[in-house]
Amino acid sequence: MNLADRIVACERCPRLREHCREVAATKRRAYRDEDYWGQPIPYFGPANAQLLVLGLAPGNHGANRTGRVFTGDSSGDWLYRALYEHGFANQPESVSRDDGLRLRGAAVTCVVKCAPPQNKPNAEEIGSCRPWFEEELRRFQGVRVVLALGRIAFDGYVRTREFPTRPKFAHGARIDPVGGPTLLASYHPSRQNTNTKRLTRPMFDAVFATARRILAEP
Predict the structure, then answer these.
(1) N or C end: fewer C-beta atoms under 10 angstroms in the chain?
(2) pTM for this prediction
(3) Domains along the chain?
(4) pLDDT tens-digit profile of 148-202?
């Protein structure tokens, strides 16, 4: 099996797998007529991506429902709109796996591949998923910029790389390690952050503009 299929077939974390199946069975009322995906969620994007966007985990009624990372919820609305506006996607919306969305020079994935209860995977689950993430990083050999959405995604990436000093998460942070991709950080576009204005559209757009500038450098 290829990498994506092996991720989908993963059963390493019993608590997460049980939770995903339960959410898929009970559903949210607004989606009661839909068939939920209910399985681990692999990366999305071409192998030659230069930008890798990294989130924490699939949403219960977003990716866990639709089967594509950051698809079908408000966080995805923010992300794919930004990707589109900065030339990384052919359309601004991601609603289903067959909606025609294509990424250009970018890929999206998560540190944890299954939707966790209360959006909080534990340390053991993050560790169990790390080999999948590391294998994804090897797949995307051409990545020049990694954009981590939120502290857990940021820390998850940092643990896969050697840095002279451990970088600290802050919105808008930029770390340029020798011989490795530039690491950018942003607050996660969750409702908790966007509804409270901790993260605004201009703040989010500025991070993508920085990524685009870096990729334009020789």
Answers:
(1) C
(2) 0.96
(3) 3-216 (3.40.470.10)
(4) 999 999 999 999 998 889 999 999 999 999 888 999 999 999 999 999 999 999 9
